[in-house]
């Protein structure tokens, strides 16, 4: 089967590698001009590490990452819980994405700076059209191009956007140093605000990721800095130095993102399939983005191996197997965020409803027992 993978992120690179191993003629395109570098933190849980091992990229991940720190959950100076994350690894997102893409590129040709602009379904397959004016026919197109997926918009989405937003915004600030000189991470809770404080793996620096309930619309990061600094200061002397760095951060040193999920009713349309964030973005705060993308790619590859001439049937089975996990992760992440930053009883109840839906939907998505070694 001739397959085009759109997107050279973690999910796209991994599924391209898997499908090439299974004998398909696979190539990939990426709108960015070059592989990623740097970036903020990303978390690989035990499941993501297992799939990474299956595609032969374990050494790549281990080289760029370190074990995830113990996480303390606190409100002001009171510790509420301590979370251990045995088997988890964390690294800078861009470095890890670029390294996994380079690993996949040893077997799969990826073309950077090539932008998809059109998709046309045909009787026997699907035609991709690119910004430079060329077009090429494929048996299957896989959209692994993230939250703002072009593939989803062109071929699957329809008239109604699957984007879910709840008025929460995230402020990203890198600050020098670590929590009291340790490898400790922390989740800090305040009134209508919460923060994740995670040390970086490659040098003496920490990410302070603060979430605010500020409503819809755009919000400037500089205006949010005092509230983020006040939350850190209220957590005690260990975070005092971080508070001052955050309070004085310049506009070009910060980033603001909206909490956003993709709750798409469909993940495929005939000869087009969505993988990873393009299908079911949970939000970077969840820590399960790599998990969902890697497991989803593995499940789809397994289902297509079962019926190599029936991509639509494989896509339906992949959706049935993965959707319960994705829904539960989305409801859990949204519920925790909405409950922790709620203003008033109505917002607290909305958060509780999301948490209840997460509990009702929860189901594991088991990793297929495969080995994609190309040796």
Salient structural properties:
single chain; 375 residues; alpha/beta; FAD/NAD(P)-binding domain; D-Amino Acid Oxidase, Chain A, domain 2; 2 domains; 11 helices; 19 strands
What does this structure look like?
There is one protein chain. The chain has 2 domains: 2-68 and 88-163 and 260-361, FAD/NAD(P)-binding domain, CATH 3.50.50; 166-259, D-Amino Acid Oxidase, Chain A, domain 2. It has helices at residues 10-21, 46-54, 58-64, 93-104, 150-156, 221-234, 240-247, 277-280, 289-306, 311-340, 344-361; strands at residues 2-6, 25-30, 41-44, 66-67, 71-75, 78-83, 89-92, 110-112, 116-121, 126-130, 135-138, 140-143, 163-176, 185-189, 193-199, 205-213, 254-262, 268-269, 272-274. It is built from 11 helices and 19 strands. The radius of gyration is 21 Å and the shape is globular. The chain is 37% helix and 27% strand. The two termini are 22 Å apart. Helix 1 (10-21) runs parallel beside helix 9 (289-306). A 7-stranded mixed sheet has the order 6-5-14-15-16-13-17, with helices on both faces. Strands 8-2-1-12-19-18 form a 6-stranded mixed sheet, with helices on both faces. Strands 3-7-4 form a 3-stranded antiparallel sheet. It is of the alpha/beta class. The model has no long low-confidence stretch (mean pLDDT 90). A hairpin with a 3-residue loop joins strand 14 (185-189) and strand 15.
